[in-house]
Description:
The structure holds 2 protein chains of 2 kinds.
Chain A: E1 7-11, H1 15-39, H2 55-83, H3 98-112, H4 127-151, H5 158-161, H6 166-170, H7 173-205, H8 209-215, E2 217-221, H9 222-226
Antiparallel strand pairs in A: 1-2
Helix pairs in contact in A: 1-2, 1-7, 2-4, 4-7
Chain B: H1 10-16, H2 21-34, H3 41-51, E1 57-61, H4 67-73, H5 78-88, E2 90-93, H6 101-114, E3 120-124, E4 127-128, E5 137-138, E6 141-142, H7 143-152, E7 156-160, H8 161-166, E8 179-180, E9 191-194, H9 201-214, H10 227-230, H11 241-245, H12 256-260, H13 327-352
Parallel strand pairs in B: 1-2, 1-3, 3-7, 7-9
Antiparallel strand pairs in B: 4-8, 5-6
Amino acid sequence: MNGSHDYQRVYVWEQPVRWFHWINALSIVVLGVTGYLIAHPPALMISKEASFSYWFGTVRFVHFVTAYVLLTNFAFRLYWSFAGNKYANWRSFFPLTKAQLRQIWDVLKVDILQFGNKPVETLGHNSMAYFTYTATGLLTIFQIATGFALYGPTSSAWFPQLFTWVMPLFGSEYTLRIFHYAAMWIFALFTLVHIYLVFYHDYVEGHGVISSMVGGWKFLEKEQIEAEHPTGMSAFPAPKADPAPVPAKATKPAG
Amino acid sequence: MKINETVPTIYEQMVSRGVDRRDFLKFCAWMGAYLGLENSAAAQIAKAIETKRRIPVIWMHFQECTCCSESFLRSSHPIVADILLDKVSLDYTETLQAAAGYQAEEILHETITKYKGEYLLLVEGSVPLGADGSYCVVAGKSALDSLREVAAGAKAIVAWGNCASSGCVQAANPNPTQATPVSAIIKDKPIINVPGCPPIAEVMAGVLVHLLTFDRIPQLDSLGRPKAFYGRRVHDTCARRANYDAGLFVETFDDENARKGYCLYKVGCRGPSTYNSCGTIKWNNGTSYPIQSGHGCLGCSEAKFWDNGPFYQRLTNFPGFGIESTADQVGLTVGGVAAAGVLAHAVLTNVRKRGEIGERPGEAAASADQTTPPHSQS
Lengths: 255, 378
């Protein structure tokens, strides 16, 4: 460690990925809060006649509208895993290569159990994180399917009717409801660990992980970028002809 | 073998029973209304009943309490039960037939051989598969064998009540007799599930009238229930629904809100996930139904409603996590453990990764000018 860092900034998260992240985060928060309210409506003391008040109906309305936002956003992200850059590519999300599996093990060792101090340096997510996002993606699909299956019978739109096959799998709508609700807790749990780990990585490694989801840039030492190991930097082997992108000229401050 | 031409039509039998034309037409209009058909359908029903030969019906009883039969007998239009159950169509039913023993079994055997592929099979009760079916044996045959034998030649099967549709109380966890619904055993016949504990009498009559007059399976939902009666949630036809949308809930059964008739959602009403006609057709000649009387819906027309307890709680036990643990308790426990883990990890990070964190030689703000810039900045 010579004391001076030769940092290079790399444009990792393209704008669509960042939009996806924040719309998704907001949707999950709104769906979680409204969902919790639907399960546990607070005891309000209202003296008005029922026909003059509609707050619980509004909570449900917000839940349903946000569900469509989440769905559209998620569908777009699926598309972007084919159209986006290598850090957003679908292949990164499946730990199929030996190198990816080894990295999962390394992350567990270094970051979770904290044996050894050499951080697992990556430009995109590490393989463990990609794998976790695959799991949350599957959970999102589960919530979409169960949610629209619950919503379908009260809707005349065609889209929710695509999920009528879900209810028989659970036997009754009541059981389906319990599962849809319980999955909310997994999202809550994920959010807790996710936010902690982002702070952890930013704090320990100093690559600007938190701000990368705002501006898209990550900072890594030049030598590490040059010595890019397959999967080491992006979890997905980069073709040799495709070196780490150099900051675009236009984004540099003028003067 | 075709049904004999000398068999009287349903109408002819009705007339011989002393039903006059006026009552008959009233009956047809009622049925049309229950089935959700338009006005002109009453004439269609009348015509069908006037011209159609009677269809032989076999009503089997397995693991059940006979409440379906009891409900049917108490139909608000006794003409229905009288005609369909008593005289016209019923060839075999353990509860009501006069015949017993060999005589009764012979009638059953005669019907299933003579009218092979023509008769309607109505099943009340679930079929135990445990201990080789010995939990329910009629005339020396297990329920499973009887059902298979009689179902083989049936035109269609109606599964009465929650027992035959999804197992009801005897199939509740741990289901000691392995009580099984009809649809899990018979796969090659059209099955109409008419769940409920019991089903509403008018619903049962409506389904039968539909089958006997139109000779067609009514439109069914994804769980095999007739859409005309199970197409809407009890919640959507509930008189207390406005209170739900307004967020006005009964908190306990003896509070002011209960007296005001607020929504029973928070005291465990299953209306929002139960499909039935209780809110519209109601019970006992359209007198009332549980929610109207101040008691939440138990969800008796839904599978596993006994296992989705406790009945007076909105959120119930999460499957696989033992008794008395709701999804919230599980979630909060796991969340608490995770939060503690995160805290411990954060502390550990500061201890073990001290070398990684914070300033390193040459990184202080004072020596910023010594840092080699990554790119020459203009």
